[in-house]
Amino acid sequence: MTSWTTQLSATTPTLEDITPAVRSGAYQQITSVLVARGERLLYEQYFDTQGAEALRNTRSATKTVTGMLVGAAVDRGLLRTDSPVVPFFKDRLPLANADPRKERITVEDFLTMSSLLECDDENEFSRGNEERMYLVEDWVKFALDLPIRGFPAWQSKPEQSPYGRAWSYCTAGATTLGPLLERATRQSVPEFAEAVLFKPLGIESVKWQYQPLGNAMTGGGLQLRSRDLLKLGQLYLDAGRWQGRQVISETWVRRSVSPHANARDDTDYGYLWWLQTFHVGGRSIPTYGMYGTGGNKVFVLPEQGVVVVVTTTNFKVAGAGALTDKLFTSLIVPAVLGQ
């Protein structure tokens, strides 16, 4: 459960209150806010000069799209979540820091940020910190060469952790899923994504970042329009269906937004989805979301049937994620609940 708690004022905010609040600069550089219930767009506002057609770099929200593509591959029988990762990359052998436990690391371990690799972007001393990965050419080799993580007495081992998995935020794992998908599907990630996800949803404007060896970067940097980010949230809200067509299986959607690891005291983690409960006006609001640096977020509120998109350029703003959460809990959620 999250510690974010907001008490409703005597006058419940409306969605129209979002515009002056954002324009005041209280939330720094918010670039767009969209709120939809079902197929009805309740609020859409752009706070920069680029407007609705701009491609938004939502950074690590890309990881959730990667999870969707893994699901599409699983749905088609091209991949399994229990597939070991190392056999896909025999051309990277032998691995540094050899350990038989590496051979048991699975696709699901990378989807849930809970492999045994010593990889933690939130620890500047971690050998697997993403900033170290960006300095080398072969990002797959970087990930698979990492040593096995140690568990000192003050940290819980996997078997002692909720859901039996010890979580640490690891971009290298999500990044490795891209080349793995390409070998499983025999298509580039952009080609596969276009065929199984973007074209069915009518998403036409897409810009990928690429790894030094030419593979699409599946750990961050994918650029999409705000309205298309909204579509991705709505796809999962509707159990994988879009305009009557089953794009991602309901089974995969359900598995993706179920807790598989505990990320924080207040937050669980699914298949590259953040599972967070907010407390607003004495009510608990369960959400699942796509989160990226700068406070770029797509929130899905299953109980309310609502999807919220917030994009920003707060990449160098301290506490940017908390700023987005404040906007979400102090204005957006109360307005939605008040309707």
Can you put this structure into words, describing what you see?
The strands form three sheets. Strands 1, 2, 3, 9, 10, 11, 12, 13 and 14 form a nine-stranded mixed beta sheet that branches. The protein has 339 residues and is α+β, with helices and mostly antiparallel strands. β9 and β10 form a beta hairpin. Helices cover 29% and strands 19% of the residues.
Runs in which pLDDT lies below 50 for 5 or more consecutive residues are 1-10
* Strand-residue proportion: 15-25%
CATH topology title of the largest domain: Beta-lactamase
Tell me roughly what share of residues is in helical segments.
25-40%
Mean pLDDT: 95
The SSE order reads EHEEEHHHHHHEEHEEHEEEEEEH
Structural class estimated from helices and strands? alpha+beta
**Count of β-strands:** 14
Rg, Cα atoms, Å: 20 Å
Instruction: Work out the helix count.
Output: 10
Measured distance between first and last alpha carbons: 25 Å
Short recap of the structure:
The protein is α+β, with helices and mostly antiparallel strands and 339 residues long. The chain has two domains: 1-53 and 226-339, Beta-lactamase; 59-221, 3-Layer(aba) Sandwich (Beta-lactamase).
List the helices and strands and how they pair.
Elements: E1 5-6, H1 18-23, E2 30-37, E3 40-46, E4 56-57, H2 62-75, H3 107-111, H4 130-133, H5 139-144, H6 171-185, H7 189-201, E5 206-207, E6 223-224, H8 226-237, E7 241-242, E8 245-246, H9 250-256, E9 261-264, E10 267-269, E11 274-280, E12 283-292, E13 296-301, E14 306-312, H10 320-337
Parallel strand pairs: 1-11
Antiparallel strand pairs: 2-3, 2-14, 4-6, 5-6, 7-8, 9-10, 10-11, 11-12, 12-13, 13-14
Helix pairs in contact: 2-6
